[in-house]
Specification:
Elements (H helix, E strand, L loop, with lengths): L6 H26 L7 H8 L6 H35 L11 H14 L5 H23 L6 H25 L2 H12 L9 H16 L1 H9 L1 H6 L4 H23 L5 H13 L3 H25 L8 H24 L2
Helix pairs in contact: 1-3, 1-13, 2-3, 3-8, 3-11, 3-12, 3-13, 4-5, 4-6, 4-7, 4-11, 5-6, 5-11, 8-11, 12-13, 12-14, 13-14
Length: 335
């Protein structure tokens, strides 16, 4: 016996199915593209266990970890953006608006100047991001109530302060380190080989986000309406704040600053499928991962053998896409 599906439900199902297919194709596209030519048949053969030769090493040690990391980072940024927008009640909110990336960047740049690399560099970035999270949270609560506007203003000010420190560090850093520091600040997946932390954080964050998705839907209608319907608004704000911040911190720890994914993707999903967070969050996660994998692949091959920072590609794609979304939203809002 078939279960009838509404028009909206059918649209959500078809879009999700197409997105899953697009995600799979983007992974194949990334694995087969690069300075070393590896055909699709050979990629499939390697994934099935035949891992002899230089091509297998390129796939298993370089491209596959980078692809997985890119998908996880894109998913974390997109989901963090959706959470930030409902938390701050601001459509321009995005994962970096609260200064998390700035704190991570300052800590990572200081570690690079000290000669730290590898896992320790990621750990330094995460510690800096965590410090910024606690700093904004503490300042937002200092001497007053904790509300979205206060958090937003505090985050903007802290982010501006971190930006000044980053500019100072880049200005005084040795020329030999400047190239790597700039790539990290602009976003780069080249060194994002350890994806296990991202997988754990994204999985846990997704489970928590889906558990509170009904409360997010009610909170989007207004705090008073949500409270009248039994939603603990203040506690939910804390959960959303720390959840979005941890997703952002982990993404920045793995790939540096990659813009526009967290801003564009939730808007695009809302435009296509509506604002129900039970749909918005998982679809944004898939779409963000897919887009970042494609952008990173293009960053590797556009001017090969040189590579572009993936943050440059996401900005180039994100700016016209955001203007298109804004134009479409304005047209739809006209009577």
């Amino acid at each position: 016996m078939s279960i009838p599906m509404s028009g909206r439900g059918r649209r959500i199902f078809l879009f999700t199915l197409l997105l899953l297919m697009a995600s799979f194709l983007s992974l194949l596209f990334s694995l087969t593209s690069g300075s070393v030519d590896v055909g699709l048949a050979r990629v499939v053969d390697i994934m099935l266990g035949n891992r002899d030769g230089i091509q297998a090493r390129v796939i298993m040690e370089l491209r596959l970890p980078r692809v997985i990391s890119g998908f996880l980072v894109g998913g974390m940024l997109a989901m963090a953006g959706a959470l930030m927008q409902v938390l701050l009640k601001n459509p321009l909110a995005e994962p970096y608006v609260l200064g998390v990336s700035g704190g991570a960047s300052v800590s990572a740049l200081l570690a690079m100047m000290a000669g730290v690399a590898g896992v320790w560099l990621n750990l330094a970035a995460f510690v800096g991001a965590l410090f910024s999270i606690l700093l904004v949270f503490g300042l937002a609560r200092l001497g007053g109530s904790w509300n979205p506007l206060r958090v937003l203003l505090t985050g903007i000010v802290v982010a501006s302060g971190w930006g000044a420190v980053i500019s100072f560090l880049l200005a005084v850093s040795p020329a030999s380190q400047l190239h790597g520091m700039l790539f990290w600040v602009m976003g780069d997946l080249e060194y994002a080989q350890h994806y296990h932390t991202g997988l754990v954080v994204l999985t846990g964050g997704f489970i928590i986000a889906m558990a509170i998705s009904r409360g997010l839907n009610l909170m989007a209608l207004g705090d008073k309406q949500a409270a009248a319907l039994g939603v603990p608004v203040q506690q939910l704000r804390y959960i959303v704040y720390f959840l979005a911040s941890m997703l952002t911190a982990t993404a920045v720890m793995q790939a540096g600053n990659i813009g526009f994914i967290g801003l564009i993707v939730p808007h695009l999903v809302r435009l296509l499928l509506g604002s129900d967070h039970r749909v918005l969050l998982p679809v944004s996660m898939l779409l963000g991962g897919c887009l970042l994998v494609i952008a990173d692949t293009l960053a590797r091959i556009v001017i090969a053998p040189q590579q572009l920072p993936v943050g440059v590609l996401t900005a180039m794609i994100g700016v016209p896409l955001f203007l298109l979304l804004l134009h479409t939203a304005v047209i739809r809002s006209r009577p």
